[in-house]
Amino acid sequence: MNARAIGTAIAAYTVLAGAVTVAGVYFLTHSGLYVIGTGGVGVLLVVLGGAQGVGGTFATGAEVETDVETDAGDVPIGSSWVRGAAGGLGLRVALLCYGLGLFLWAAVAVSLFGSSLR
Asked: Which segments cross the bilayer (predicted)?
């Protein structure tokens, strides 16, 4: 994988999108429960992003024939500026980076603004 594309995906999804989402939840609700819930959604997205790369069938020895030669991890998502910033790395990397950003920024918000949360 391209190191520059991964760096831009981290910057776009983890730093920018994660911070905007958690800040929006914090300023709209001032509720610690919602901020912690946002962190939980981030953990869920990280798990889904990691599990997307795991393929196969439940039956051992079963062969699956497909006519499609595409990998779901290579499907670009988001608007055109995000696809350009992420270098077209795909859904798996986007879910991992965005989920990590939600979790980390929620942890920062709870630790910094814990006394002002309801």
From this structure: 6-28, 33-51, 89-113
Which pTM does this prediction carry?
Answer: 0.70
Tell me, letter by letter, the H, E, C secondary structure of 32-73.
HHHHHHHHHHHHHHHHHHHHCCCCCCCCCCCCCCCCCCCCHH
| Helices 32-51 and 18-29: angle between axes, nearest 10 degrees | 150
Residue that has been written with the tokens 């499609």 in this structure: 68
User: Residue 43's closest CA among 114, 110, 113, 96?
Assistant: 96
Is the CB of residue 85 less than 8 Å from the CB of residue 9?
Answer: yes
CA geometry: angle 35, 51, 17, nearest 5 deg: 35
8 A C-beta contact, residue 17 and residue 101: yes
How far is it, in rounded angstroms, from Cα 41 to Cα 48? 10
Q: Torsion-angle region of residue 68: left (phi > 0), alpha (psi -120 to 50) or beta? A: beta
